[in-house]
Amino acid sequence: MRIDVVSIFPSYFDGLTLSLLGKAQSTGILDLRIHDLRDWTHDRHRTVDDTPYGGGAGMVMKPEPWGLALDQLAAGADGGPRPTIIFPSPAGEVFHQSTARELADREHLIFGCGRYEGIDERVFEEAAELGEVRLISLGDYVLNGGEVAVMAMVEAIGRLIPGVVGNPESLVEESHEDGLLEYPSYTKPSVWRDREVPPILLSGNHGAIAAWRREQQVERTRRRRPDLLAGED
Ligand code: JCH
């Protein structure tokens, strides 16, 4: 899978080359390319923002650098796949595990990170000529720009690419893959600061352990995330 990220703060993404996704990149499973939007400016100050038409607070990202960046990055080999172009936005559809699963099947993703008050709306219309455009929110809170949302999305998507996570069973068992929260985990020592590991986990009774874990999952989901049991996800 190829992933391009465009940002005015490219060094934000240095962390994505570490650990799991770093290995996926060195083995060629993931081709992750980080770009500086200012590379597509042509003025002396490498300007990416301007005042909003109609007035109001703050600045808006100019369309021209975005247009040039997207034209260049979307131009695959002739007959190549049209990219999916994702803009994080507090006004987008909410990102879920199901979104990550859907996007992990794409051959080419382009992420555009806005800053200031956002990007000139015409950029989204223009991007729709190059591929499928998705405005996606990480959740119902306001960030200062798209970078942190893209870090989260690339990590969630990247670990679903076949071969990135060593044991595919660890993908199935965890939170949200089965619509329930995870069961609690324990390791050695069996007693720590007078706190015992639940004895059933030391029993060797695999059927009883599986039943206990499922019960724990349902109970924590009921307490912490009743919305998940209501069938909303
Ligand atoms: C972003 C901003 C509009 C602040 C600029 C680009 C995504 N889930 C999520 N929360 N916030 C974002 C996000 C994504 C891209 C950008 N900003 C700052 C934009 C605002 O209007 C209310 C406020 C925030």
Automatic annotation (TrEMBL):
Keywords for this protein: Cytoplasm, Methyltransferase, S-adenosyl-L-methionine, Transferase, tRNA processing
Entry keyword annotation includes Transferase: yes
Superkingdom assignment: Bacteria
Example of a GO biological process term: tRNA N1-guanine methylation
Enzyme class name: transferase
Documented EC number(s): 2.1.1.228
Catalytic activity as recorded in UniProt: guanosine(37) in tRNA + S-adenosyl-L-methionine = N(1)-methylguanosine(37) in tRNA + S-adenosyl-L-homocysteine + H(+)
Residue span, tRNA methyltransferase TRMD/TRM10-type domain: 1-229
Subcellular location field: Cytoplasm
Gene Ontology cellular-component annotations: cytosol
Gene3D superfamilies documented for this protein: 3.40.1280.10, tRNA(m1g37)methyltransferase, domain 2
GO molecular function: tRNA (guanine(37)-N1)-methyltransferase activity
Residues where S-adenosyl-L-methionine binds: G114, L138, G139, D140, Y141, V142, L143
Family assignment from sequence similarity: Belongs to the RNA methyltransferase TrmD family.
Subunit structure: Homodimer.
Role summary: Specifically methylates guanosine-37 in various tRNAs.
PANTHER family for this protein: TRNA (GUANINE-N(1)-)-METHYLTRANSFERASE
Protein name: tRNA (guanine-N(1)-)-methyltransferase
